[in-house]
Write a structure and sequence with these properties.
two-stranded antiparallel ribbon; alpha/beta; Metallo-beta-lactamase, Chain A; 14 strands; globular
């Protein structure tokens, strides 16, 4: 086989990344809408030899994250990259767990691993980014060929913090620039099949429903 054809064949046989939810995000507000507690989603992407953690949660959640990794057969030191969707403490409080990982500082459209790239999604904060994965969302206990077909998965941080923001068509309540926040949310919705939001359970845009990993609905059957 000529070299060009071998390269093309290899490109098409590269295994798709697996996206694993280590911890869903959450947010609690009082009757006036004041945030009482906010905790980010923590996600692991396995792409080829790379293990990428996206957001690391709030300080004090380390044991929960380590346990979730262990259930998948991983340790914190297995991660070689960490991406923070933005610099708020509920998204980077566990960065110290991943002492062997380099912190990724990437630009819009930059590929950081096979089938994994960065989307600039400012508005919630000036430095907000999302991570786009062309791969499989792996449901717990269903790690086989049925465990999520190929999809575009966007790990959105607070650029799209909850499924409610998507359903109501409203940007995050906390933002530095509303116009940018609206544009970023629209960009995610136009790009993704599945969203891992910053403060909610993963959901399907097409089905407008939570994934099995949310323990609310099983879309992986």
């Amino acid at each position: 086989m000529p070299p060009g054809q071998r390269h093309e064949a290899a490109r098409h046989t590269t295994p798709l990344p697996g996206v694993f939810l280590l911890k869903p995000g959450s947010i609690v507000r009082d009757d006036q809408g004041v945030v009482l507690d906010a905790r980010s989603s923590v996600t692991l992407i396995a792409s080829g030899r790379h293990k990428i953690v996206v957001d690391s949660g709030l300080a004090g959640e380390e044991e929960l994250i380590v346990r979730a990794l262990a259930e998948l057969g991983f340790r914190p030191q297995d991660a070689d990259m960490i991406v923070n969707t933005h610099s708020h403490p509920d998204h980077c409080g566990g960065n110290h767990l991943f002492s062997h990982a380099r912190k990724v500082e990437a630009k819009d459209g930059e590929t950081i691993a096979p089938h994994v790239s960065i989307l600039a999604t400012p508005g919630h904060s000036e430095d907000s980014i999302s991570v786009m994965v062309r791969g499989r969302f792996v449901c717990p206990g269903r790690e086989d060929e049925r465990s999520g077909s190929s999809a575009v998965i966007v790990i959105a941080g607070d650029a799209l913090p909850t499924m409610g923001n998507f359903l109501k068509g409203v940007p995050p309540a906390l933002h530095t620039d509303r116009e940018l926040a609206v544009a970023s949310m629209k960009k995610i919705i136009e790009t993704a099949d599945i969203v891992v939001p910053g403060h909610d359970h993963p959901f399907s845009l097409r089905k407008k429903a939570y994934l099995q990993n949310s323990r609310k609905t099983d879309l992986c059957r």
